[in-house]
Design a protein that fits this description.
The complex is a heterodimer of chains A (161) and B (143). Chain A has a single domain, classed as Ferritin. Chain A contains 5 helices and no strands. The mean pLDDT of chain A is 86. Chain B has 2 domains: 64 residues, Orthogonal Bundle (Arc Repressor Mutant, subunit A); 66 residues, Orthogonal Bundle (Diphtheria Toxin Repressor, domain 2). The chains are: A mainly alpha (161), B mainly alpha (143). Chains A and B meet through helix 1, helix 3 and helix 4 of A and helix 1, helix 2, helix 5 and helix 6 of B.
Chain lengths: 161, 143
Amino acid sequence: MSMSLQSPVGSDHQLARLLQIGVVLEEVVEARAAKHAAESEEIDEEVRTLLEEATEESADHRERLERLVEGLNAETIPFDEIQALVERQYEADQDFDGILYDQLCNEETAYKFYDDLIEAIEESDAQFGIDRDRLLSVLAEIREEEAAGVEEVTKLMERGQ
Amino acid sequence: MNTANQYLKAIYLIQKMEDGPASTGAIAEMLDVSPASANEMIGKLESEGWCNHEKYKGVELTEDGIVRAREAIQNYCIIERFLVEVLEVENFREEATQLESVIDETVAERLDTIIDREPQCPDCFDAESDVCALLELEVDAAD
């Protein structure tokens, strides 16, 4: 057995794989936020609006990532498949703090993912089948929106205390 | 890139297989690196308190090293299971190895919400076949 140390983004195939994972992460966020909003009666308008916006934002990120993946001639996992997996294992706390905390983890995780991905692409000298500058600018935009999301949830959590 | 985790994971698995310290040669071989770079990294891990290295005997993880190595194996298991169960990747071992340095534990935790993983993880990880012994593979894609 061998587990050699290699660059994580050295080819179109590897890049497409990481972008596919990004799509799945967005799908998980989208499905969980929608589920929280649908199943909780105790949340107030502000939290409901936050969840609805998070759902829309994730859908938008997903579409932008999908376009990049298409440019690499790869496919992404359809949303309904991920939604079914989320439904099957969904067991988050339904109270106010639980939902906001889950949403905070979602945004922080997404931010961390894009941040690491951007760093790995910048460190790689591979030539990709899509324009490198466009790739990096799309990822940086999404990362900024995730950072704003973290801030927004944090504010709501502080208000709740 | 988090190569430290890959080293700790390799040391842990070799110690488990050997039931004793891991030789630097075995570590270098498992990670497909030169003995010189393995030695350099092991020295760094030792100075940070993750392992102890005794010449002619080998490398042993400290308690902190064991905790971190087990987390790294769990992460690797999540990535492998995610590749198999969700993305249906045949070449999942190789791809998991490429991904593990860029998918950190916070991201792995989210992926963990949509896969099946057994509570005894990572004890069920089989170092020889480089995959969880409990993961059902429709077609074994190793060869």
